[in-house]
Amino acid sequence: MAAKFGTSGLRGLVEEITDGTCDKYVRGYLRHLKNQNIAKEGSKVFIGYDLRASSPLICEQTIAAAIKENFIPINCADLPTPALALYAMHNHSASIMITGSHIPADRNGIKFYRPDGEIDKSDEQEIQKYAGEISEENIASDVDFDQVPNERAEAVEQFSERYKSLFSSSFFHGKRIGIYEHSSVARDILKDVFEAFGANVFSLDRSETFIPVDTEAVSDDTVKNLKAWTEEYQLDAILSTDGDGDRPLLSDENGNYIKGDILGLIASKYLNVDVIATPISSNSGIQNSPNTEVYLTRVGSPYVIAAINEALDKDSGRVVGFEANGGFLLASKSNMGHGTLQPLPTRDCVLPMLAVLAMSIDQNLPLSKLVTSYEMPITHAGRIQEFPTEISSTFVAELTNSTEKRDEFFAPFGSVQDINIIDGLRVTLDNGEIVHLRPSGNAPEMRCYVEAESIAAAEELVSKVVSAIKVYNSI
Predict the structure, then answer these.
(1) Which residues are catalytic?
(2) What is the pLDDT of residues 383-392, one digit of tens each?
(3) pTM (two decimals)
(4) Where residue 248 sits, what CATH number does that domain have?
(5) pLDDT at 410 > cutoff 60
(6) Alpha carbon 253 to chain centroid distance?
(7) Same domain, yes or no, for 36 and 19?
(8) Of the candidates 139, 157, 175, which is a domain's last residue?
(9) pLDDT tens across 1-18, in order?
C-alpha cells in the first residue's frame, strides 16, 4: 500500500488505491468509528466522488467495503466535497469522498468525514492502525450497485439552498459572472446559485476530461485564460474551483485572480469573525488583522481544524479557518445577507467567493479595489513538479539543520535574519523578503511561497529560488 495520508486525505496513484488499499482504509475507518462509538453497524455512510475517470471504480470499492463492515452505503455520486459533508452531517452520519482534489489525473484519493466533520490527525493514525490489521486481499464484490440508494439530488439541493437563501433574486442584477467550469464537480452548482441571485452567468471552457486545477499555484495558461475571458465577455468576475469543489478560484474585473488567503481574510471580515486559524504559508499580513486573534498552523486542513477546535474550546467567539489555497472552514454560526449560516467545518468553495462578491457590492467597489484596500504584502507561489518527496524532504532538512548550508543557499537572495519551521522552512531575509520551502503532502512536488515588495519582485524571486533548488539537487 503505497498510498498515504497527505495534507487532506489519503492520496496516491490510482493503482495504489484500487489494489486493495481502498478496501482496507475504508474498512479501517469504519472500524475506528465503531470502536469510538461514533457509529455502529447498520448506520448509514454517505459516499461521493469527483469527475476523475477512476473515481466511480473507487466509489464502487468503497461501497463494497462499507457493506463488508455492515454499514448501509448511500451513493451521492458526483458532487462537491462540502455538499457531501453538509448532507451527511445533516443526517448525523459519516461520509467518504473519492477525490484527488487538484493533483494529476493519474492519481486519486479518499477523504473521510465523521458525523461532526472532517477527521483529524489522531483519526488518521487510528485508521492506519485498523487498515493494517485487515489481511484480506480479495477486493472482488458481487454487490448490485444499482440497488444502492442514491441521494445525490437531495444532497446537491441542500447545498445550493444553503446559499441561495441568503440574498434576494436581484442581489447580483447587472453583474456579469463567468464560471470557469473545466472538470470541477461544483460547476453546475455555481451556475445555479449565481443565476438565482440575478447574475448574468457565462459558462467557460467546460471539459469532459479531468483537468487538475490548483488554486494555490495557478498555472500560466489559466492566468492567460482568465484575462482573455474577462476582456472578451466584459466580466465583473470569474469563479472556479479545484476538482472536488472545496477550494475556490476567484478573479476580478481585470482577470487577475485573488490569492486564496486574501480571499479568506476578506470573507472573514465580511462575517465579522473573532478568530482565524490559517497555515504558516498564508500571507504574513493576516497576522496583523485588527480585532482578530490568529492561530498559525502547519499546512493541511486537519491542522487548521485542530486550531479551530482549540479556539472553540476556549469559547473565543466566532471562529473560521482558511488556507492559502482558499478553502474556507466555517466553525461558528454566522449571519450573512438576510440569513444565517450553520457551521460547516470543512473546506468550502462557495462561501468565500460569495462573501467577497457581496462585500464588493455592499461597498460599491470593484473586486480589484476591494482587495487593494487591505494593503497586504505581495505574495507569489511556485512549485517543482515530479520532485520526489524523499529528495525534497532531505533538501529542506539539510537547510533547516545546517546554518552553513542554509546561509550558502540563500546568499544570492539575501542574508537570513529569521527562520520558522512550523511546516517546512520559512526564511525571512534582511531585505524583508520571505521564502518558504515545503515538500507537498499530496504529490511529488516542492512548494515555494514568497513575499516581496512588488508582484514583479515576487515572481522573479520564485523563479530564481526554483532554479537554485534544481541546481542544488542536480535536477
Answers:
(1) 101
(2) 898 899 899 9
(3) 0.89
(4) 3.40.120.10
(5) yes
(6) 24
(7) yes
(8) 157
(9) 477 786 678 899 999 999
